[in-house]
Amino acid sequence: MAFDIEMIKSVYANMASRVDKAREIVGKPLTLSEKILYSHLWEGKPSKAFERGKDYVDFAPDRIACQDATAQMALLQFMQAGKPKVAVPTTVHCDHLIQAKSGATADLKVANTTSAEVFDFLESVSNKYGIGFWKPGAGIIHQVVLENYAFPGGMMIGTDSHTVNAGGLGMVAIGVGGADAVDVMAGMAWELKFPKLIGVKLTGNISGWTSAKDVILKVAGILTVKGGTGAIIEYFGEGAKNLSCTGKGTICNMGAEVGATTSTFGYDDSMERYLRATDRNDVADAANAVKEYLTADTEVYANPEQYFDEIIEINLDELKPHLNGPFTPDLATPVGELGKKARENDWPLQVDWGLIGSCTNSSYEDLSRAASIAKQAVDKKIKPKSDFGINPGSEQIRYTAERDGLLETFENLGATVFTNACGPCIGQWDRSDLKGDEKNTIVHSFNRNFSKRADGNPNTHAFVGSPEMVAAIAISGRLDFDPMNDTLINEDGEEVKLDEPMGIELPPQGFAVEDAGYLEPDEDGSGVEVKVSPTSERLQLLEPFVPITPEQLQGVKLLIKAFGKCTTDHISMAGPWLRFRGHLDNIANNTLIGAVNAFNKKTNFVKNQLTGEYGGVPDTQRAYKAAGIKSIVVGDHNYGEGSSREHAAMQPRHLGVAAVLVKSFARIHETNLKKQGMLGLTFANESDYDLIQEDDTFNFVDVADFAPGKPLTIEVVHADGSKDTIMANHTYNESQIGWFKEGSALNVIKRENAA
Questions:
Q1: Rounded-to-integer distance, Cα 219 and Cα 214, Å
Q2: Has keyword Cell membrane (predicted)?
């Protein structure tokens, strides 16, 4: 039986009337995305049509999911909201703070010791406020959500950018910062700019070495890392119906890599099969009763160009397996062409590791397809040339895969089975086979491959592929290996060829598990005590941010002008820094240390305008803060791409950064800056980026008149006394300007709750 079945039935009970009303108001057939959006309006029944990409809309999500690294800050904020219990179903999943090193048992034991303080905090605060708690080792948040909580037609937000994975079960599931989640936990509306819509029509059938992963690898190559910004990607067509539910989840998961608000599929037979296989017959039955509302209207998919802002068409019969990378997930290359490209770019051809798992590809079907390749290697006496690491998606998957012999197959190949957790995908990997920063290549089935992402080495060339392709490439040990055409030499000196992978959509004997790792919260948590030691290095109770005044926005110093890609990994690194995610002052010591300084092309080396000396970014900013001086960060396109981590906004805010001025923002990061009471601005003329000099001081001339739709005028004073006046655009509405004037969105919530 499903969690929160009464909530799901309530959503379905309201859906028909709300969608019918929306169709009447909009005056045309609706996409699936529009049906879900209009049926989740904060006001209830729709009363107006919204303009895509322009109107800010208040929504009422059905549930919230948080992973342990982001849940700390989100729940520390919620504790300030003055509420006895969360207003909507919420869960916390402990999957980020477990380092992959020796294997599942040993690594989990170490994590439970080293992060005991954080896990205990999360368990107790969850118990106090009515939040479901998934223990360390229970699984990766997005796979656990797909197995237990996702439902067709629902709306969910989560404090992780890959919350979008639940689109594989027909949800509109969106990654947000913790402050957004706190709004909804506190019973308030959640605001989002009404998204544009990108339709992806899939025809044909995937077969052979091509997988669902290759669909999104191809889409990433088409849209690039920012091509989906501000849009929902809706997949449809006969090809979509031919994909498994977990395959759909994989595609939606990596939609985060093109900047999409989320991705989704219409309800179909594969989703029903998955719901029933995961013991949710009640959800399947309820969904079947309203199934025409859980996909787009017939006219939409028949004439998609009339209903979507952009259309992409992919013939799955012709789609080739891809490996994307290195250093960016949108550099798409068909496998057979990768060798030539690698030689031209001097990418290392030797592959040191093949890593299978992550929230993107850790389902039973994923493991079965990769295991079919691993078994061939054993049977055909092929000795793997690379090391193997496996991260199952959940304890249910691990237990079932062990029962069915899949894990034994990997172990026979010499693979290390890590904990059911994120591990190397987020930099939680104690990789012992390299010294220093030597140039090397790895292949993985993850979603991101930014520089330093997996192992902290800027020279690790990481390539993203399907689990079965990762297995084949790792067995060969060569980046230029094409399993569709190339052969390998086995231990007997024979030339052998790998056969096509064989996958099992759902376990024939059904899923099984002894202890899934879930803890139900107390019905009344009022007596539960949440302890945070004042001397803790891992946790720190929050103090409210103080509003930034117009006076403080005169004489603002340049902290750093970031050059090129500046993701949330550059602004607030993960890996070893994850241990400080609950302690704002300590984690602030990694602020922007990965960003490249445009003036010297170095990282963590900026000029202190007070002394004229160069030093680390956080140290320089702390000097400005001590002197009572606010600062500004200047950046390039798609600033804040990547994770939803609000630390990338809270850390600069804590240290005294008042504004971020860039060519363009990634959606979640722009919202996070607004939530924390900062100015998130874009150049009206992108070429003005080139005017910014190392010793510049900024005066925000008319910030006292900050208003929706009105650009801000900024006077840039150079070291020689000369000045440039630039215009900065923004997307703040009245309520968001209220956040800025109050110091943060949380301050507004506290004031309203106290009233």
A1: 8
A2: no
3-state secondary structure 541-586: CCCCCCCCCCHHHCCEEEEEEECCCCCHHHHCCCHHHHHHCECHHH
Secondary structure in 3-state letters for 199-249: EEEEECCCCCCCCHHHHHHHHHHHHCCCCCECEEEEEECHHHHCCCHHHHH
Alpha-carbon span 267 to 643, nearest angstrom: 28
Residues assigned a catalytic role: 95-96, 160, 448, 643, 645
Domains of the chain as residue ranges with CATH: 5-42+55-318 (3.30.499.10), 322-481 (3.30.499.10), 550-754 (3.20.19.10)
Strand partners, 489: 495
Q: What is the average per-residue pLDDT within 355-377? A: 97
The pLDDT tens digits for 20-34 are: 999 999 999 999 999
Cβ–Cβ < 8 Å for 391, 419: yes
Instruction: Flag the least confident range among 32-36, 435-439, 614-618, 667-671.
Output: 435-439
3-class SS shares of the chain: helix, strand, coil, % to 5: 35, 20, 45
Map residue 180 onto helix, strand or coil: helix
Prediction pTM value: 0.89
Best CA proximity match to 448, nearest among 260, 262, 641: 641
Query: 659, 679 in Cβ contact below 8 A?
Result: yes
- Does 196 score more than 70 pLDDT? yes
Q: How confident is the model at residue 755 (pLDDT cuts 50, 70, 90)?
A: low
Residue 727, SS3 per DSSP: strand
Q: pLDDT band at residue 36, thresholds of 50, 70 and 90?
A: very high
* Contact between residue 712 and residue 688 where contact means Cβ atoms under 8 Å apart: no
Q: How confident is the model at residue 238 (pLDDT cuts 50, 70, 90)?
A: very high
What letter represents residue 222's amino acid?
Answer: I
What is the Cα–Cα distance from 389 to 351, expressed in whole angstroms? 13
Burial of residue 209 (CB within 10 Å: 0-12, 13-18, 19+) is buried
